[in-house]
């Protein structure tokens, strides 16, 4: 009795090619199913990174806007409370299309020591803040350093510090996984700014801005 050939060997060439194509298609489907989550992760990650970068840029722009507007002073000194409130409220418009909810702003008029401008910390002369933040106390700010370009004896400048909460569009589950109950993280930006207007006090050579309810640098 003649030995029977295996089924694959007895199939015509065309049938074997069709079976190969079906098998290859199945392998491709499995490979695609394995690769798809990786591709989606890369896509969503790139999208979220770009959005977060834009939010950080907006936070930086907010700090610079607040500092710039404050540095231009008012028709009176100290700056009127209503004027300062307008500056704080209108500046948040630069955050659009991101929400301004939860944004905290602290603005301080800073002074540099007359004797050791390169080594001494700056002094807070006057300070204001939004209702959800705390203004700095008028004293030497040991947690700050004088920025480059402002390290001159008696220099006066404005410092705007902003805190902007950011909620990821796609990564809220990840934020919860790493332990953030609010599903968000926070951008903190500080912008020093030269005084554009104001007036001199106590015989100092540099103009100074005095914030509402504050006093000039000693």
Question: Can you offer a commentary on this structure?
Answer:
The protein is α+β, with helices and mostly antiparallel strands. It has one domain. It is built from 4 helices and 4 strands, in the order H-H-H-E-E-E-H-E. Helix 2 runs antiparallel to helix 3. The radius of gyration is 31 Å and the shape is elongated. The termini are far apart. The mean pLDDT is 85. Pfam families: TadE (PF07811).
Summarize the structure.
The chain is an alpha+beta fold and 218 residues long. Helices cover 37% and strands 17% of the residues.
Which structural category fits the helices and strands?
Answer: alpha+beta
Q: What fraction strand?
A: 15-25%
**What shape does the CA trace take?**
elongated
User: Spans of 5+ residues with little confidence (pLDDT < 50)?
Assistant: none
Number of helices: 4
State the order of secondary-structure elements, H for helix, E for strand.
HHHEEEHE
Strand order of the largest sheet: 2-1-3-4
Mean pLDDT, nearest integer? 85
**Count of DSSP E strands?**
4
Proportion in helices: 25-40%
**What integer value in Å does the Rg equal?**
31 Å
Summarize the main sheet: 4 strands, antiparallel
Total count of domains? 1
Straight-line distance between termini: 116 Å
